[in-house]
Amino acid sequence: MKAAPAAQKRLLDLAELDSVIDRLAHRRRTLPELAEIDEISARVARLATQVISAETEAGDLAREQSKAEADVDSVRIRAERDQKRLDSGQVSSPKDLASLQSEIASLNRRQSDLEEVVLEIMERREAADAQVTKIAAERDGLVAARSVSEDRRDAAFAEIDKESAEVRGKRSEVVADIPADLLALYEKLRDQFGVGAAMLQGARCLGCRTSLSIAEINRIKAASHDEVIRCEECRRILVRTAESGL
C-alpha cells in the first residue's frame, strides 16, 4: 500500500485521539459512582424485602389483635348479660343461681385471660410496627443517598461526553486528511490490537515496544517514503518520522 508520508503521519495524530477516546470510555465505564450506585441498589433491594416481611408480620398481628379483641368483647357481652339476669332477680332457683354465678366468674376469668392475650399481641404489634418504621427509614435514607450518587454520576457523564464529543470532532478533521484505503487498514488493525499505528523511533516500534532487527531496519531504509510499512512483530502500521533516524 502507498500513501503520502504526511498522510501516514496523520495516523499518529489519529492514534493519539483514539487513545484519548478509549481512556474517556474506560473512565465512563469505571466511574466510582457506578459501583457505589450498584452497592446501594443492592442494599435497597434487601431492605425492601425486609420491609415487606416486617409489614406482613405487622399485618398478621393486627388481624390477630382484632380477633382477640372481638373474643374479649364477646365474652364481656355474655358476662354483662348474665350479670343483668342475676341482678334482675329473674333467677330464683338456688341451683340456677349457683350455676349463673359460676358462669359469670368463669366468663370474668376468661375475659381477663383474653385481655392479657390482647396486651401481649399489642406489644408484639408495636414492636413490629417500630421495625417497619426503622427499616423503611433506612431504606429511604439509602434511596436519598443513591439519588446523590446518581447526580454525581450524571454530572461526570456529561463532562466525559462533552470532552469525548470535542475529541471526536478533532478526529473527524484528522480522518479527512487520510486516504480511504489507509484509514480502512488502520481501523482494521485498531479493532484487532487496540492501536492501529505506531511511531518507528530509532530501531524500535512504539506499538509493541519491540526493537527491530538489522535486516528489518535495512528493509525499511530501502523502502520508498510513500510505502506503508508494517511492524513484523505486532503488524501495526509503522510511521516513519524525523525521530526514526532513517
TrEMBL record:
InterPro entries found in the cross-reference section: CT398_CC_hairpin, Oxidative_Scav/Glycosyltrans, Zf-RING_7
Recorded superkingdom: Bacteria
Domain CT398-like coiled coil hairpin, first and last residues per copy: 14-193
Domain C4-type zinc ribbon residues, every copy: 204-238
The protein's name in its UniProt record: Uncharacterized protein
Source organism of the structure: Streptosporangium minutum
